Amino acid sequence: MKKDYKNIDIVGEVNHKIKTLDITRYNRIYMSQRLSKYSEEWKFVFFLLNIEAIIFVTLSLTGVFDGVAFNASSGIFSIYVILAQYYINGLNYNERSLKMHYHQLDIEDLILRLKNLLLKYNSDVEKYELDDMQKDYELIMNQYQTILKNNENHDPVDNQKRLTLNTKSEAQKGEVSEMRNRENCNSSGQSSQTNSKGLESEGDSKGNGSKGNVKSTIDDKILFLNRMVICLIPIVILLFILQGW
Fold it and tell me: Which residues belong to the signal peptide in this entry (predicted)?
């Protein structure tokens, strides 16, 4: 369905932009949290991988296993750890997380300025015309476009997380409303209770749909594979020990 832009007014547009900027801000917040989580998890993963690499190299240098297969496995695994660290360090998870954090703060500042436009327009004390509001609005939007150009975009996973959390919040509000309606033993309360149940069930169905559509990112898959490597290396070393016996 095509949107009709013929009857747009500046007050309605400012109010609409406040909502859209707020959505973008929360997406950036969730992206910042996700990148920060990656950074912390990779620190722990590389800590374990380096310990295993040291064990591999130590056993190889001390001659505990004289086989060519063990020495080759030790060398390949050490090279893998070095290359993996080089690749992950290039992704700059911690730096990108911090940049997203400051990015959402810049967007919050623009939201507050847009809200201030409405406050000045609705105020009886200060004379603030629509033309003035439009000029200030255009200035804020130009700054917003500049901020977007200088920062990377969020992943669809971050937007799906926001939708899921919003659905849960609405469902909780529906439960609170339902409990209040149960306490009011009158006809209006019962009618309201029915409506809240309908909204709650609708919210649950939307929430389940958003959860079902959430997909892991390539970063999650790479992290999962390296967790598997951590678990496999002790098994490989144990197999070499059993063969030596």
Answer: none
